[in-house]
Amino acid sequence: MDQFIEQIITGLSIGSILLLVALGLSIIYGSMGIINLAHGEFVMLGAYAAWVFHTYLGLGLLASLVPIFLVVAAFGWVIERFVLSLLNNRPLDTILATWGVGIMLQQAVRLMVGSELRYVQLPPALSGSMEVFGLSVSSYRVFLFLVSIALFGATWLLMNRTTVGMKLRAIIQDRSVAASFGVNAKRVYALTFAYGAGLAGLAGALVSPLKSVSPDMGTGYVVDAFMVVVLGGVQSLAGTVASAFILGELSGGIAFLQNDTVAKALVLLAIIVLIRFRPEGLFTARVRA
């Protein structure tokens, strides 16, 4: 029973990290239809920003989360306004453009700070452990779980209870009709992309104490993020949450029985089979005709 509970907790920990990384991509891909191959590099920028704030400004991780979100969001806004907004209704071109942006970001980081592995210190207040169902669990992983749920809640409120979210949903339904009511689609898209990029940067900062920081660290994260979004279903935030924790539990359980490599291979195979029979994902948002 203790091993079972331990694996459940491990799966929740993995799922919370997947949710942190995938939430920003879910907003960008589900709302704007942009396949953002630079999403992993936004995660990487957030991790490096955490290292820079700590190394050169003396800010702890918790104190630097809001500045990191704003910095990466501002960068995402610039990318959308000056690159992606010029490629409307050209999805293949946006794939190529975001891929190129990702490569440029990797090389820029290598030129500015080098390719050496960097490390971010755990917040002292969260460096210990706590008891959960009689088991010792890292306090920081519990913190990540709570933050991932809080960010999902904030994103849901933004999309469903604010003017920006209402305008974005109107544009998704019919851009020309929304424009006739005075909705500025370019501005809404820029803000949406900035928010998604900021979430990716926040995810990178939050996972940086658990992983070494390097220019190519985002490659693996972008694959995981797309798996979560595709499994959950496009335009379904609830599906993103459910799929993140489903994949987390599957990965944790298989890794316990075999190893991490087998877990990744089997999870990817399961997603491929699922897409074959249910290409819209597990949780498809219902759209009124």
TrEMBL record:
<dbReference type="Pfam" id="PF02653">
    <property type="entry name" value="BPD_transp_2"/>
</dbReference>
<keyword id="KW-0812">Transmembrane</keyword>
<dbReference type="InterPro" id="IPR052157">
    <property type="entry name" value="BCAA_transport_permease"/>
</dbReference>
<dbReference type="GO" id="GO:0005886">
    <property type="term" value="C:plasma membrane"/>
</dbReference>
<feature type="transmembrane region" description="Helical">
    <location>
        <begin position="55"/>
        <end position="79"/>
    </location>
</feature>
<feature type="transmembrane region" description="Helical">
    <location>
        <begin position="140"/>
        <end position="159"/>
    </location>
</feature>
<dbReference type="InterPro" id="IPR001851">
    <property type="entry name" value="ABC_transp_permease"/>
</dbReference>
<feature type="transmembrane region" description="Helical">
    <location>
        <begin position="226"/>
        <end position="250"/>
    </location>
</feature>
<protein>
    <submittedName>
        <fullName>High-affinity branched-chain amino acid transport system permease protein LivH</fullName>
    </submittedName>
</protein>
<dbReference type="GO" id="GO:0022857">
    <property type="term" value="F:transmembrane transporter activity"/>
</dbReference>
<keyword id="KW-0029">Amino-acid transport</keyword>
<dbReference type="GO" id="GO:0006865">
    <property type="term" value="P:amino acid transport"/>
</dbReference>
<keyword id="KW-1003">Cell membrane</keyword>
<dbReference type="InterPro" id="IPR017779">
    <property type="entry name" value="ABC_UrtB_bac"/>
</dbReference>
<feature type="transmembrane region" description="Helical">
    <location>
        <begin position="12"/>
        <end position="35"/>
    </location>
</feature>
<feature type="transmembrane region" description="Helical">
    <location>
        <begin position="262"/>
        <end position="279"/>
    </location>
</feature>
<feature type="transmembrane region" description="Helical">
    <location>
        <begin position="188"/>
        <end position="206"/>
    </location>
</feature>
<keyword id="KW-1133">Transmembrane helix</keyword>
<keyword id="KW-0472">Membrane</keyword>
<comment type="similarity">
    <text>Belongs to the binding-protein-dependent transport system permease family. LivHM subfamily.</text>
</comment>
<keyword id="KW-0813">Transport</keyword>
